[in-house]
């Protein structure tokens, strides 16, 4: 699917936030886990919430690995330049959510999580995230109508040059970028789809198709591959080049075997790993 790959590599651009904190040597080791600048006293959010979100971000993006030990309370106080009460409040929230566990006499550790996200062609990113106890979101990259090249029109059973809606988003879990997703849909089947506000952080494409267009995906096909990330992809996903990405190409059909949408996904391999459950009988138990 050359057009899909080229489209994602060359057409998806988003500027990453600049980082930098001006550290002294005493701060270098603990601060290396932090994804961005620390607390901002001009920020309306409470200080403990800023500390909580900074630690959660470092856990979600792997800078604090599973089963990894958190810095000590004293290190966190020095790192964030806040009181012990603020640090304890932030840690308490992480412990209550099961993100962090306390081992008496040893310290705080990142809790174990499930292995990955089940590969589904008919289940939306939003539904998958919620079923895994995560908060879905997205940033809009592009939403427009274009004349489809053969690589897009052919699998959608459209004549060459037919109009298609293209919707490209950076998908987020707990506000962390994990997947670049681009969907192509026959424009004639989804009038008004682009009139919706796709900058809203938790809008599900499949939910909109079902509710407003009465389109119900019922079967699909998925192709998995891997390649090196482009510079734009690496920037959006927070990868250090050269870096590998998992690519997932999918097409969904309705119950009359009409194509619903063609999807190209570029996955961060650590933040959004995929699992495939199989059995001889077809009965799958969740572990």
UniProtKB/TrEMBL annotation:
SUPFAM superfamilies, alphabetized: Chorismate lyase-like, Winged helix' DNA-binding domain
Q: Known InterPro entries for this protein?
A: Bact_HTH_transcr_reg, Chorismate_lyase_/UTRA_dom_sf, Tscrpt_reg_HTH_GntR, UTRA, WH-like_DNA-bd_sf, WH_DNA-bd_sf
Positions of the HTH gntR-type domain: 45-113
Q: Keyword annotations for this protein?
A: DNA-binding, Transcription, Transcription regulation
The residues forming a coiled coil are none
Source domain of life is Bacteria
* Gene3D superfamilies associated with the record: Chorismate lyase-like, Winged helix-like DNA-binding domain superfamily/Winged helix DNA-binding domain
Report the Pfam families cross-referenced here: GntR (PF00392), UTRA (PF07702)
Statement: the UniProt record of this protein carries the keyword Transcription regulation: yes
Presence of keyword Nucleus: no
| Name the UniProt record assigns to this protein | GntR family transcriptional regulator
Q: Which organism is it from?
A: Rhizobium mongolense
């Amino acid at each position: 699917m050359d057009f899909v790959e080229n489209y994602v590599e060359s057409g998806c651009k988003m500027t990453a936030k600049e980082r930098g904190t001006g550290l002294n040597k005493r701060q270098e080791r603990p601060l290396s886990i932090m994804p961005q600048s620390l607390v901002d006293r001009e920020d309306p959010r409470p200080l403990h919430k800023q500390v909580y979100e900074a630690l959660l971000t470092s856990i979600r993006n792997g800078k604090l690995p599973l089963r990894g030990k958190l810095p000590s309370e004293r290190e966190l106080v020095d790192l964030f330049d806040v009181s012990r009460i603020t640090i304890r409040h932030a840690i308490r929230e992480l412990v209550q959510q099961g993100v962090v566990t306390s081992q008496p006499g040893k310290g705080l550790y990142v809790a174990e999580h499930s292995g990955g996200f089940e590969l589904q062609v008919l289940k939306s990113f939003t539904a998958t995230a919620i079923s895994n106890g995560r908060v879905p979101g997205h940033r809009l990259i592009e939403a427009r109508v274009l004349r489809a090249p053969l690589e897009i029109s052919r699998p959608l059973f459209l004549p060459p040059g037919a109009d298609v809606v293209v919707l490209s988003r950076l998908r987020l879990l707990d506000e962390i970028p994990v997947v670049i997703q681009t969907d192509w849909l026959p424009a004639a089947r989804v009038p008004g789809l682009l009139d919706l506000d796709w900058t809203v952080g938790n809008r599900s494409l499949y939910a909109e198709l079902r509710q407003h267009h009465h389109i119900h995906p019922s079967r699909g096909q998925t192709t998995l591959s891997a390649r090196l990330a482009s510079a734009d992809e690496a920037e959006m996903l927070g990868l250090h080049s050269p870096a590998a990405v998992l690519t997932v190409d999918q097409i969904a059909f309705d119950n009359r075997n009409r194509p619903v949408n063609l999807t190209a996904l570029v996955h961060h391999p650590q933040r959004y790993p995929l699992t495939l459950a199989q059995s001889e009988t077809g009965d799958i138990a969740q572990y």
